[in-house]
Amino acid sequence: MDVYTAIASKRDERRYADRPLPDDLVTRILDAGRLAGSSRNLQDWEFVVVSDRDALAEAVYAPDNVRTAALAVAIVCPRALDTGRAAQNMMLAAWGDGIVSCPNGVRDAEAAERIVGATPAIVLSFGYPAKPRDPASRTAEEWSQRANRKPLEEVVRRV
Ligand SMILES: Cc1cc2nc3c(=O)[nH]c(=O)nc-3n(C[C@H](O)[C@H](O)[C@H](O)COP(=O)(O)O)c2cc1C
């Protein structure tokens, strides 16, 4: 899958198959986060793999996303843009391997900190999809048109 097709066909998915992810693919996902560029290349982040997903689930807005995921990664990072770059890298790398994902906002920062050891900026849930979706079933342009997004004219301004 080419990069644009990966971007266009990526959706945030919340229903995961009850199937573990191979260790090498988990490593690739984490490495994709590591490879993200960051402000002044500070890499001021930690990607915390949380094994007690049931406990972490209670700290996010959508507990089922984390409870049913095969992998939960809490990103600890003080910079929003750096967090976003690492998060999207991880989610797109995962999608390239057929693994779906969703960002999860933290509802209870104190509870999350007790589990993670620091307050996460975001928690990513990953898993094989409960309902598989083939990115090759449509062109990138078709995926783009179907995306629930504002039209380009509404978000692009030229000055
Ligand atoms: C910062 C951030 C926080 C989010 N928090 C949640 C969340 O707590 N629960 C959830 O189900 N989805 C969450 N999402 C996912 C958004 O709902 C999703 O990106 C948006 O609806 C677009 O989904 P789509 O790519 O499937 O069209 C979050 C996304 C971002 C960027």
Description of the structure:
With 159 residues, the chain is α+β, with helices and mostly antiparallel strands. The protein has one domain (3-155): NADH Oxidase. The chain contains eight helices and four strands, in the order ααβααβαβαβαα. It has helices at residues 3-9, 23-34, 53-57, 63-67, 80-96, 109-116, 140-146, 152-155; strands at residues 46-49, 71-76, 100-104, 122-127. A four-stranded antiparallel β-sheet has the order 1-2-4-3, with helices on one face. Helix 1 (3-9) runs parallel beside helix 7 and helix 2 (23-34) runs antiparallel to helix 5. Flavin mononucleotide is lined by residues 11-12, 14, 60-62, 65, 102-105, 122, 148. Flavin mononucleotide binds at residues 11-12, 14, 60-62, 65, 102-105, 122, 148.
Provide key terms for this protein.
about 160 residues; alpha+beta; NADH Oxidase; four-stranded antiparallel sheet; 8 helices; about 15% strand; globular; binds flavin mononucleotide
In order across it, which strands form the biggest sheet? 1-2-4-3
The strand count comes to 4
CATH class: Alpha Beta
C-alpha geometry: globular
Q: What fraction of residues sit in β-strands?
A: 5-15%
- Whole-angstrom Rg: 16 Å
Return the average pLDDT rounded to an integer: 98
Under CATH, the homologous superfamily reads NADH Oxidase
The largest sheet is: 4 strands, antiparallel
Unreliable spans: none
Summarize the topology.
Elements: H1 3-9, H2 23-34, E1 46-49, H3 53-57, H4 63-67, E2 71-76, H5 80-96, E3 100-104, H6 109-116, E4 122-127, H7 140-146, H8 152-155
Antiparallel strand pairs: 1-2, 2-4, 3-4
Flavin mononucleotide binds next to strand 3.
